[in-house]
Amino acid sequence: MQGLTKRWLFRPGLETPPKLRQSSIIPLIDRVFRARGLDGAEMVRQFCQPKLTDLHDPQLLPNIDLAASKLVETIRSGKNLVIFGDYDVDGIAGTAILYHVIKAVAPEANLITYVPHRLEEGYGLSSHALRQLRNDGADLVISVDCGITAVEPALVAKEIGLELIITDHHCPPEDENDLPDALAIVHPSIKGSDYPFSDLCGAGVAFKLAWHFATTWCNSKRVGESLQKTLLDMLPLAALGTIADVVPLVGENRTITMFGLRWIKQTPIAGLKALIEVSGLMDDNIDSEKVGFILAPRLNACGRMGHAADALRLLTTSQGEEAVTIAQQLTQLNRKRQKTQRDIVDHAIRLVEDSGMANDDCRMIVLAHESWHRGVIGIVCSRLVEKFGRPTILLQNENGICKGSARSIDGYSIHQALLSCNEYLLTYGGHDAAAGLTLESAKLNAFTQAISQHAKANITDEQLIPAINIDCDAQLAEIDLATTKQIAALSPFGRANPKPAIRVQKTTIAEAPKQIGSNGKHLSLRLRQDDSNSRSTLRAVWWNAGNLASDLAAGMHIDVVIEPKINVWNGRTSVEGELKDVRLCDV
Asked: Which CATH architecture has domain 52-261?
């Protein structure tokens, strides 16, 4: 099935989409549940109403006993501990989780946090940083959201007598002999792991370690009420990392996120509360979209445009006016980031089009430029993937070295692609959807050719056309307020749990399409569907499709894919559709 702009696919496992005549037999909400693999009352309960008891025992994580025991030993012996986090939201949130839980049981612990400068130090554990921390008196360093490929830094730590624990979730080396030689590696999917859920983010792994550290400290599976509350107070931070790192919002990620969002406005963390207030969200329902588009970009902007240490301070030690000031600074930095991002997006789009990388025979976009801000090009990669439907690698070329980011499309692992070309790379790491990399400028052309060939051999023509995964068919009359509220119970939405998309066949455009928004950027349609009993109508908005207004007209018959939405305006609640695509049809 092909719409105007996308491929239409029914979800895997839904081999025969429900026919329209089945609408009276199987309610729409049940068809949506079945499309999501939720067959039966208990499965629906676990998904829509998870319990904290659904979370897996952290003791199942490999090496977590050793890591927790070493933390307890280090703190009780008065030695110096450093939590070394990544500079993105996931790493900052995970670092803050460990910090707060350790300080809750041992307020006088010799504990500091460290996050590298994105531009000056680069990603992850570095030999230079570990040497400096050892010189400053560190006895134990524990990484958060980084370190799984830090072979050389781990060797350096051993040489200088610095104990190292690694906690991470990024793709581990295929050969376990290539893992860093650390005291302990806590990772849900290293070889030999029996952990039942492999998709935790870095903050999720840190939360599990903090939990197990607390029970190890207390020498009991049950901790006191005060410490239990501290652990629960960490769930909003774990939810921030889970949403911002775009890991699948299923399984225990979903449980963490649901409870974290539920409690986020009641957080006792002064900096997080200040960020929510400065962002104007105290009176709003904070869902995954508001985290992804409002809170997380502010925290990330600090690391992209300045030093992430400020964002980390916001989530750990800041209080009162200092917390408000930092939150305001992050908002200003985010505006600066947005302007820089727009400029690079426009420039990169011109280069893609001029170079022919948008042509049908091209499967991969690889671009480098000396003027691009390295802290922003990862987001620009995502924008180019959305526009051109191709994996994208963008690099800042400076002083003979190219450093940058990669983003991919569904079904193509960018991590595996980089692995296949690792002879050209100095460093790389990440996962299927996103990665970072460094290479010598002299090898850029050879690398571009090699990875482009890999993409050409592994990406089909069909994969270049963005796809919509459709949950089921429906009649327009079924998309009512009660059903739409039931569908909302599937939130929080995100990767692996997108908003439900419903196909409605043989609708009629009831009136001339209207271009709305600034410069007519968006499109508003009034849809009508007649059946033997009634005539149903629904307003639908198609974002960023104003340019298609001339292709559609009143009276046309179209199939549509829509996401049902609840719209509240001037005290009136109604149902609208967010159009994802349309297809002309014959009645």
From this structure: Alpha-Beta Complex (3.90)
